Structures are given as structure tokens and as C-alpha cells.
């Protein structure tokens, strides 16, 4: 890396990854799913970009902020998280990234999607270096993938004339083709897959947005000028654009808003292995096949089967006599799909969403900033959760109006606040939290705390929680005031008629 040129990596972390359902959900999209050697595409992206700079900038949604900071902390990486109030596609996302610290106009920004798999880090960095001088001279540099098969799943870039630096002017951006046109593109020889990776000066991007998408530029400029900032631990900042302003921005891709209209766009071909992990076929290709072309990830067994993929990270999944099938098993949903139909998983996801299946939104296992919980059983009047609390972490000081809870510690030590009393529980010890009792759970030790929680009551929704104090800024002051006011009213003697 040329140390004389400062590059700020910007990871675009939006998208729901509906084609990877049931592994990918709204609350836990594919960029966070461990699909490559127990690592998520987001983690691999951070590791790939880490040599370029000390800090990384991430554009993400509010609900994913703690998943992201947890990964960054494990990698000892600091960074700023720009939290979009609402997804508005890549043009607005890149605009707020460029407008953040906009006084540093000559800095280079490298925009990378969070869900790509590029195993050769050195070749990737070498390719990025090939575009630095072009970007410093004012070009927007994009990086096209040299195709090795005809694909209708990607947009394309048509190479134009060669530049003095050995790169190419972009002649055209082409939408996703049909199968016949994709085969023509492969034979044409000057077409590249559009990976959505861009390198440019901050100043260049802002001027391009102002010229080609002035509404996006002006709205994002105001939203960032009135943004708020919250420091989360020493090395992460949450930057929140003004919600009322930002949500008025058009929802356009950067290709449509800028690239297709901008004159000075240069493409650098990347010839290494690349995947956007955009379908289950793409995920399967990351696993080595046996002699019958079966691919197994996890606890699977293929008997008398051919060209079968099994994703089974938890329980045993067996295929018998199958051919050209993909079997994806998660704790609360199973997908069985013929290999040629994987692109239609997105359609299935939309059907499930229309019918309000919760499996489109959340996994059974839910991640929180303090750890996670897994709902192992439930009915109308009870719910059983397995709860894991990270060392030193604490749940909020809270209360419930409709449910009681029994806690049993199965591993580690719990520090429990129950009303006015605080005490420790060790393994095989338990406590009871009545309805309305203020309580808190904390892990005071350096080892994981695991416990079983049994909820009982006539309403068990996750919205039955009032946070009075919270380490992670989730307590709503208005709710606390309203609750205190209601409590005070309840304690007053009833008025005489």
C-alpha cells in the first residue's frame, strides 16, 4: 500500500439478502451470517480492508449496530458507524459517507459492499493500488470482475479505450442481461461484472452527486449537517443523520444516480476469485465437493445422492437418493430447493412476509449487545429461553407488566438485581422475578454466563419491557417519565366521588 495516499474504507452494509433465506433474515442479513469457515462476509470484508487504514467507516442500519461493533471489537478495529434511519440505496449511503468529515476533501474513499467473498487479500489490495493515481487525478474508479462464466445475476461494465495507466475508460454500465445476452457478453471479451466497488476523492464524489443527483446531495447534506453523534465505548461512534430529512432522499443506486451519467469513470479489472454470495448456489460453491458432487457444510450426510448441497450447522440432516437439491436447515425453518430455482428463493421470502411469518424477520436465536438468547420452547402462556451473557456485560434495568420470570443459572455466575436487593447466583441456583418487579441481570466474571429463563403470563411479547437504565442507550426517557408518573398516580388514594 502506498502510505502517502490516505484511503478511508467505507463498508456498505445495507441489504437484506433475501435469496439466502432461511439463513438470512431482516434482523440478521447475509453479511453477518457465518457462511465461510465460520466467518461472516462482513468480518472477511473488514479483515481484507484493515491493511488500508486504521479506521473503517460503515454505513448500516440502527438495528445492526451492536452486531457490527461486536465484530469490530473482536478484530480490534475502530470505526465510525453511520446509521441510516431508513434504507435509501447506495447513492444516499455513499453521499452521507462523503459528507461525514467533509472538510477532508482530498481524502480517497474506497466503497466496498459488506457481502463479497474475495479470498486473495494481497491481489485485492494490489488491484486497488492500480486505481489510486486515476482517482487522485479526479476520476471515479470502479473495479470490474473478469467473468469466468455467463451470468445473468450481475450487472456489467463495458470497457472502453485503455488509459496511460493501463486501466480502461468505462464505455457503458449495462443492466443484468438474460441468459442469451450473458453468453454474448462472455464471448465479447470486453465485459466485466459490476462489483459495486468504487475509489474516488471525497471531493470528486460530492461534485458528481451535486451535478447528477442534486436532490440526493442537498437532502443528505442537510441531514448530515444536523446529525447527532454518540460515542459507544472508546473506539466507536454512532453517527445518525437527521431522520426527518434523510427519509426524504430519493432511493437510487449510485450507478443510476451518478455512474451512468458521469464522464470520467475508469474501470480496473480484477482477475482474482470473487463472489457476492448472492444465492445458495454461490454459497455451495465455497464448499469442496465429493466424488458425487455433493457438498456438505456441518452435520450432514448424503447417501446415494448426487449434486446435493446440505447446510446443517446444528442437527443431523440426511439426504437419501436426492439429485440436484439444496437442503438448508436452521433451528426454526428448512428450505429444500432444486438447484436451478435458487434465484426464486427471494420470491418465496416475499410470500412469507406477506403472510406475516416471523421467520422472515428474526432467527430463533436473537443477538443483543450483551450476548444472545435462544427461544427453545413456547406456547400461549409460557416461553423458555436459553440466555448467554458476555463477560462484564449487563442487561438493562427493567420491568415487565404482563409476565413473570424464573431464572436458573447453568454456567458461570450471575449478579441479580431484584427490587431493592442485589445478590449473586452460581450454577444450579435460581430466582423468581414477579410481574412488575424491577430487575437486572449482569455477568460480573470473565467467563460466559449461561442461564435458562422461564417466562409465564398472559402476554409474552418482546415489547413488554420497560428499560429504566441501559448501558447501551436503549432506555427511552419518555417511557421512564410516563412509567414514574403512572406509578405515582397508582400510589395516590382514590378520589371520593
Report what the structure shows.
The protein is α+β, with helices and mostly antiparallel strands and 497 residues long. It folds into 3 domains: 7-270, Spore Coat Polysaccharide Biosynthesis Protein SpsA, Chain A (Alpha-Beta Complex); 286-354, no CATH class; 365-480, Jelly Rolls (Sandwich). It contains 13 helices and 26 strands. It has helices at residues 41-49, 65-74, 89-99, 121-129, 132-136, 179-188, 202-212, 214-225, 243-246, 254-259, 280-284, 345-354, 477-491, and strands spanning 7-12, 55-61, 78-84, 108-113, 140-145, 156-162, 168-174, 191-201, 228-232, 236-240, 265-270, 295-303, 309-320, 325-330, 333-338, 365-368, 371-378, 382-389, 397-399, 403-411, 414-418, 421-425, 430-433, 439-442, 449-457, 466-469. Strands 16-17-18-25-20-23 form a 6-stranded antiparallel β-sheet, with no helix packed on it. Helix 1 (41-49) links the parallel strand 1 and strand 2. Helix 3 crosses helix 7 (202-212), helix 3 crosses helix 8 and helix 7 (202-212) crosses helix 8. It is globular and about 75 Å long. 39% of the residues are buried. The model is unreliable at 480-497 (pLDDT under 50).
Give the count of structural domains: 3
**Poorly predicted runs:** 480-497
The name of the CATH superfamily of the largest domain reads Spore Coat Polysaccharide Biosynthesis Protein SpsA, Chain A
Using the 3D structure, state the CATH architecture of the largest domain: Alpha-Beta Complex
In percent, how much strand structure appears in the residues? 25-35%
How many alpha or pi helices? 13
